[in-house]
Structures are given as structure tokens and as C-alpha cells.
Amino acid sequence: MPVIKIFCAQGPDADACERLAQTLRDLCIGPMGAQPNAIQLMLVPGVQMLDGAPVLVEAHYRDRPDRKGPALAQFLQGVDQAVQLAFGQQPRIRSFAVEQSTLGAVR
């Protein structure tokens, strides 16, 4: 963890996707303090948005004290900027802190 999912009707071109992925990795490793091998990034194109923002981002991460306040704000602002740059559209972003004791995971 973190797991970042981006839902959209159509994804950006391959170069923009790679830049977006690298920026998201950097944000996970930097402000969120994630281990590189724990990061999962997903782009889910083909979603028909019926209402709301044209791009929806969900970020799930382990709840830790160092991932609150300024670190979370820096992460979310960076995600917002990166997605806007890649898609040319303003996303709706939702983050979910998952309590470690409730998390079951393999790898």
C-alpha cells in the first residue's frame, strides 16, 4: 500500500501515463513514506461517468501517524496536479486511510 486507482472514460497517451505513474510513485515514496515494492497504481479507462467529475481518483493507504496532516496534504495536492496535467481535467480525489489491524494482505 498505497493503492491508487484512476477511473476515467479514456486514459491519456502512453507518454503522459508514464509521467503520471512516475509522479505518483514519487509522491507515494516521498510524502507517504511507502516502500517502492508496496505501491500499486491502476488506470481504469472505459468508465462511463454518469455524474460528477470526469476523472475519479481513489487512494487507499495504511493509516500511520506520519501520513496525516502536512504529509497527506502534500500527497493529495501532488496527485491533483499530476492528474490534471495528464488528463487536462480536474479530478475528484478521495483518500482512505486503512487501519493496520483491519487490513489483510498478501504481498
Number of DSSP E strands: 4
Measured between the Cα atoms of the first and last residue, the distance is: 10 Å
Measured by DSSP, the beta-strand proportion falls in 15-25%
Biggest sheet layout: 4 strands, mixed
Q: In sequence order, what are the helices and strands, one letter per element? A: EHEEHE
Count of runs of 4 or more consecutive helical residues: 2
Q: In what order do the strands lie side by side in the largest sheet?
A: 2-1-3-4
Mean pLDDT score: 94
Structural class: alpha/beta
Low-confidence stretches: none
Tell me, briefly, the overall form.
globular
Rounded to the nearest angstrom, the radius of gyration is: 14 Å
Into which percent range does the helicity of residues fall?
A: 25-40%
Write a structural description:
Helices cover 32% and strands 24% of the residues. It is an alpha/beta fold and 107 residues long. The chain has a four-stranded mixed beta sheet, covered by helices on one side. Helix 2 links the parallel strand 3 and strand 4. The longest helix is centred in the C-terminal third of the chain and has 18 residues. The model has no long low-confidence stretch (mean pLDDT 94).
Question: Care to give the gist of this entry?
Answer:
This protein has about 110 residues and is an alpha/beta fold. Helix content is about 30%, strand content about 25%.
How are the elements arranged and paired?
Layout: E1 3-8, H1 14-29, E2 40-44, E3 55-62, H2 70-87, E4 92-98
Parallel strand pairs: 1-2, 3-4
Antiparallel strand pairs: 1-3
Helix pairs in contact: 1-2
